[in-house]
Specification:
binds magnesium ion; 17% strand; binds adenosine-5'-diphosphate; alpha/beta; 42% helix; hydrolase activity; RecG_dom3_C; Rossmann fold; 4 domains; DNA polymerase, domain 1; OB fold (Dihydrolipoamide Acetyltransferase, E2P); 22 strands
Length: 742
């Protein structure tokens, strides 16, 4: 209570330690945070003083670049500073208020019109000095601004240190102006706090102190200062996240980790058995994985590569190394189709290399399963390939030392953990086709070692992508028919998003284009079809897929066999359908996103994606990776009737680039800051000021610094490291609160 009564200037007797501890005191200890305001803040996830000083401005209004009213150009956004000449409150209609203010400076007059803010009439009066920021209009003979930002230039505004006004996110009960006041009081409360960043790091990167940075990010004297403050605080966020990620694994049983003897006879025979030579990148990835597998620390490696870059054989070779070590490996894939495909492609190679393997999925017959599990538990089977079926409690390994997870992003955290728990402390190898740029990967997976496969092995042919509209989709059908007469095969993909899609398709079969179907911008800003679980498909969607297949069979591909595969089919039926397509008994496969992973049919050369705007870029890219695998020229047609500019820009990007990494970077640049890290990973929510596109150098620096700190002091126990570790824990707790408040 006494703290609330404290004056704005910090009490001199307060020590550095007190100020530092004050960060984690309840926000109600801050001056002017009444119980009611504390409650309003709490609803926003702001509970402590730390939360309040980390309640960063959403933007700034720069009142320092002022123009004389006479020079303010119509249509431009600018700031004018002057004296209030007259204030008039009008009520032209019931429940409508309008405040008209005339502002004069040496050059002329500016009229201000403010709707719905009757209180302005009380706050402003003739003779006051004000700064107004807004867009200049011209009407009734005057330059005007409607609802501009108005700042009274009094002592307080001068105290803002220059004329940069921060706009803090407000709450229902606390206005921006009040928030500004409360944040300022909170800053006073922690004045003189200790800086958790070691001085050596601050000097190396030219970073301001924490206290100065916090004050400057809220109340900068220039935009440059705000940028410097942000950089300092962003670095801190990154360093703490990296430390968190890197020390998270320290609890694992490090002693139990297997230091694999790599490069043994089976690994070599596996490579010899390949019908092709590994690419340089594949060999580099193998070497990097070998290095982490050979280390006595538990390996945590991620292999990132676009579809078709050949991740599978790299993983296969690592699994062969495990057999050399006399222990066991597991390869888990997200779908039955994919698991079977891995078995079909890796199995013969394992056989030649003397690696004993088995495959386990949900449809493995019970007797076969029992026998297999027995052999796995006895350690007879070196490598077990499978689906989620591997996670069943009765699947026991004698000694699992390498867990490989293919398409890792398709599994949940718990599923990945469940596989890892099948061993004492297995090395983990994650494969992903989601092209995550290195900086983002570092931010999200700073604890992992990373290898990239960027180029497709030679022999994979050119692939062309074209965007078509509903009216021009005949081009795709023509190309598909031409391919079919050459004996090639065709995919048609329907995103199947609820009744809307069904409706559209029915309509297309019947009437012409619908009138006025302007896309809902909000909904379509980032349309991602999240059908991760095949069970998500509803009956209605299946029915619409059936209609699409029937339409194509009857109207488009009359001379060829069309078959439908969808998520509601039993695994066995799906597999049979796929088999017919693979062997060429059917030539056109109509599918939902089921084929996104798990299909490798070299003869497939044409893919038509309906309602392509409904897919995310990454998903589209992964989809089209299904054609052009057999060395023949191939085409992906993206059909969309969207008129949303954003959607069309994304499709145009698909047309313009065949490189998943380039697309990912483009995708990132489209997103709003907060969306980039989104819900991807819990830890990343501490990154509130970081922009993974712009802050690449900062991310690399923080990653390297954290690595060095953890290598030197794994438990973070030294005097400097201890301070950082404490901050790390508190920052994560705060990020969690904020997450709840959102
Ligand atoms: P992904 O990275 O998408 O999982 P795959 O591992 O399925 O890619 O490989 C795609 C195709 O490329 C497979 O048919 C595979 O046999 C082939 N492949 C992999 N490595 C090479 C190579 N070095 N040279 C030629 N073909 C390769
Ligand atoms: Mg793959």
């Amino acid at each position: 209570m006494s703290a609330r009564a404290a004056s704005r200037v910090p009490v001199p007797s307060r020590t550095r330690l007190d100020a530092t501890m004050a960060f984690d005191a309840p926000a109600s200890q801050v001056r002017q945070v009444s119980p009611a305001r504390a409650e309003a803040l709490r609803k926003r996830g702001v509970q402590t003083v730390r939360d309040l000083v980390c309640h960063f401005p959403r933007r700034y209004i720069d009142l320092s670049s002022v123009l004389p009213a006479a020079h303010a150009r119509i249509g431009d956004a600018c700031t004018v500073r002057g004296t209030v000449h007259e204030v008039r409150l009008k009520r032209p209609r019931l429940r409508m208020s309008l405040v008209e203010v005339s502002v004069v400076d040496d050059s002329g007059v500016l009229m201000i019109t403010c709707f719905g803010q009757p209180w302005l009439a009380d706050q402003l009066s003739a003779g006051m000095r004000v700064a107004v920021a807004g867009t200049v209009e011209f009407s009734y003979g005057f330059k005007r601004m409607t609802n501009p930002f108005i700042e009274v230039i009094d002592d307080e505004a001068d105290a803002l240190g220059g004329m940069i006004v921060p706009v803090h996110p407000a709450t229902e009960r606390i206005t921006t102006a009040w928030m500004r006041r409360l944040v300022r009081n909170a800053l006073d409360h922690v004045e003189g706090c200790l800086d958790p960043l070691p001085l050596s790091l601050r000097l190396r990167h030219g970073l301001m102190s924490r206290g100065a940075a916090l004050r400057a990010i809220h109340f900068p004297s220039s935009m440059t200062e705000a940028a410097r403050a942000r950089r300092r605080l962003a670095y801190e966020e990154l360093l703490l996240l990296q430390l968190e990620l890197m020390t998270r694994d320290e609890g694992r049983l490090v002693d139990a980790a297997c230091a694999h003897a790599v490069g043994g006879v089976r690994a070599r025979s596996f490579v010899d058995a390949l019908p092709f030579a590994l690419t340089d990148e594949q060999r580099a990835a193998c070497a990097q994985i070998d290095e982490s597998m050979a280390s006595p620390r538990p390996a945590h490696h991620m292999l990132l590569g676009d579809v078709g870059t050949g991740k599978t054989v790299v993983a296969g070779r690592s699994l062969a190394s495990v057999a050399d070590a006399g222990t066991q490996g597991a390869l888990m894939a997200p779908t039955e189709l994919l698991a079977r495909q891995h078995a079909a492609s890796l199995g013969p190679l394992f056989d030649q290399a003397g690696v004993i393997w088995g495959v386990l999925t949900g449809s493995t017959p019970a007797d076969e399963r029992a026998l297999l599990l027995e052999r796995v538990a006895a350690g007879v089977v070196d490598v077990l390939i499978g689906t989620h079926a591997l996670l069943e409690p009765d699947v026991r390994f004698r000694s699992l030392t390498l867990a490989v997870i293919d398409e890792q992003q398709r599994f949940g955290v718990h599923q990945r953990a469940a596989l890892v728990q099948k061993g004492a402390c297995p090395d983990v190898l994650l494969l992903t086709a989601t092209p995550i740029p290195r900086t983002l990967a570092l931010a999200l997976y700073g604890n992992m070692t990373l290898s990239y496969l960027r180029a497709r092995p030679a022999g994979l042919q050119r692939r062309e992508t074209r965007v078509l509209t509903r009216q021009t989709r005949g081009v795709a059908y023509d190309a598909a028919r031409a391919a079919l007469t050459r004996g090639e095969r065709v995919y048609v993909v329907c995103p199947l998003v609820g009744a809307a899609a069904a409706e559209k398709r029915a309509e297309r079969a019947g009437k012409g284009p619908r009138q006025g179907d302007a896309p809902d911008e909000e909904e379509r800003a980032f349309p991602e079809v999240a059908i991760d679980s095949e069970d998500d498909l509803r009956e209605v969607e299946v029915a619409s897929a059936k209609r699409e297949a029937a339409f194509l069979q009857q109207k488009v591909f009359c001379d060829h066999a069309v078959e439908l595969v969808h998520g509601r089919m039993a695994a066995a039926a799906k597999q049979e359908a796929m088999e017919r397509f693979r062997t060429g008994r059917t030539q056109v496969l109509v599918a939902t996103t089921v084929i996104e992973v798990g299909v490798d049919v070299p003869e497939a050369t044409v893919m038509i994606v309906e309602d392509a705007d409904r897919f995310g870029l990454a998903q589209l890219h992964q989809l089209r990776g299904r054609v052009g695998r057999g060395g023949r020229e191939s085409w992906a047609f993206l059909v969309s009737s969207s008129r949303s500019e954003a959607a069309l820009a994304r499709l145009a990007a698909m047309e313009g680039s065949d490189d998943g990494f380039e697309l990912a970077a483009f995708d990132l640049s489209l997103r709003r800051e907060g969306d980039i890290l989104g819900n991807r990973q819990h830890g990343a929510s501490v990154l509130r000021l970081v922009n993974v596109v712009r802050d690449a150098a900062l991310i690399e620096a923080a990653h390297a610094d954290a690595r060095a700190l953890v290598d030197a002091d794994p438990q973070l126990q030294g005097p400097e490291a201890r301070v950082l570790a404490r901050e790390m824990r508190l920052a994560f707790a705060a990020a969690e609160r904020e997450g709840e408040g959102r």
